[in-house]
Amino acid sequence: MPYMKASKIKQPLSVLKDIRSQKCGLRCTIFSASGNEYNGEWQDDKKHGKGIQVWKKSGAIYSGEWKFGKRDGYGTCSVLLPDKEYARKYCGGWKNGKKHGYGTYFYNSSAVYEGEWSEDQRSGWGRMYYGSGDIYEGEWMKDKTHGQGIIRFANGNWYEGTWRDGKKNGNGKFYYPDKGQLYEGFWVDGVAKCGTLSDFGRDEAPTPTKYPIPQVHLVDMQLVLREAQSGLNQA
Description:
235 residues; mainly beta; 15-stranded antiparallel β-sheet; elongated
């Protein structure tokens, strides 16, 4: 019986060229059809590892880690200003091309957020410095204040309590150190619905009210607040 030599299956020339052209490892600057530039590491023809991407249209730059073609890990994103100077926009964690984990974002209005992110949105714990001078520190969910948090206003007043969908909701305390007063009560969609106003640090207040708030003696003040809150919930 004659010996038959097994023949290898030949792949089309176009497939062979494609395999040979696939990028893997460290490469020099690669230009895409749209004019974007990438300089860094590759794996299986995808950006993978550390690299720098420059977008031609916006001039934005990302420098950091990549995973299978998407920003993933730690990285910094900067934008090109009209005066041709670069300004840092975000530095922190990324996952699957979106801001994720701990990071700092710089807004155009001089506001700054530093804290946790999830799916490109502020979620978890974070601190927000607003352009007005107000500062919020606490919990976030889906880009809105949600949970327990404190906001300190530029005028010195502050609120600490519960938030929902970006507004004061639930039990909280509002301090007026300039007047030496404290409001403690219940909020619904940012509006105080029921509570008590009392003197707090009146002797140290720079502009206290003319007369102190008279003491109101209730058998059970908390019971009164709970009943009022229950009525609001049923409304």
